[in-house]
Amino acid sequence: MDLRRDRALRVSSFHIDHQVFSATMSRTLLNLCCSLVGALLGAVAVLGPQPALAADWASVFMYHRFGESEWPATNIRLDQFEAHLEEIRAGGYTVLPLPEIMTRLRNAAELPDRTLGITIDDAYASVYAQAWPRLKKAGLPFTLFVSTDAVDRSSPGYMTWDQIRELKAAGATIGSQTASHPHLPDIEIEQVKIELDRAAQRIADETGERPTLFAYPYGEYGAAVQRVVAARGYAAAFGQHSGVAHAGSDRFGLPRFALNETYGGVDRFRLTANALPLPVRDRVPADLVLQQNPPTFGFTVDPSIPDVDRIDCYASGQGRAKVEALGSRVEVRLPEPFPAGRARINCTMPGPDGRWRWYGVQFYIPR
């Protein structure tokens, strides 16, 4: 199962970020050539320690494995991870516990600019052996999303409940990622309820506390699954699409920036850690489980965002998409259907101080 999961993540969870990252860096280099003074100011803004300015957004990162080179699509090398921690230490960021970030966003309370959240999926053994000692030494909070069946079975390569309890006692947040880590859009809604309830009960039994944060396995969800998660009383739920969580985000479809060996360099980490939200509304289609393929995709950008015609959008497997902007309304046209499974569209545009605004979605195409 791990091999299938790793290959699936390799194909659709990270491919589109390569196109966005390459295009983003290319445009950044063009900006550097056009204005030396502007570039120097932008470099100071991005790289140097900054005062804690008021914001209503945060970049949330997603890791899986640490130092497990046989799983490169879900692994981060230890030298890469240590570079991330050094960038956090030196770069003027504020790392807060994910529950605190969610509470502040929900209540429209201020966050420091460049607030980060750290999440880790699946409770692999390398979290305890490699990530936890480094995070503890750095004094950084994080959230661990657990799929309970693998832990209950004492599956090779996974943490134990004793280890999970140790992390929780030291301040880590324990969230749920269902019991068996299924493709939620593929199963009956009653089975979705069973998956969530069984996992929440096991986490409560083993840690003494029911989870309040949820992560969709493979980042896959649609409107029906979201309603089940919300009805279970979760405070927030996270996918695996890129973007910046902000006060106006759907709290049951929050984005995270995924990090692995290919997309885990410190330049990409810095780019996404400094990303700004691209607030949108009236997205079409509203349900991410596609009934029409290719979708007629569009959204309205918050009117406070200028220069909407500078948005670029990239579709997985198709590259740069045709974008039409009329006022604040953006329409994205795709030349061909997506294959069955997961598909992503990432939209970015230049923001102030050399930073980038980012909005992404992950569709699910029924098999």
Helix content: 25-40%
What Rg, in angstroms, do the CA atoms define?
A: 20 Å
Distinct helical segment count: 11
Estimated structural class: alpha/beta
Mean pLDDT: 89
Multimeric state: single chain
How many β strands by DSSP? 22
Strand content: 15-25%
General shape: globular
What is the rounded distance between the termini? 19 Å
Give the low-pLDDT segments.
Answer: 1-15, 25-52
Biggest sheet architecture: 7 strands, mixed
Structural overview:
This protein is an alpha/beta fold. Helix content is 35%, strand content 25%. It contains eleven helices and 22 strands. The strands form six sheets. Strands 2, 5, 7, 8, 9, 12 and 13 form a seven-stranded mixed sheet that branches. Strands 14-22-21-17-18 form a five-stranded mixed sheet, covered by helices on one side. Strand 10 (213-215), helix 10 (223-231) and strand 11 form a beta-alpha-beta unit. The protein is globular. The relative contact order is 0.15.
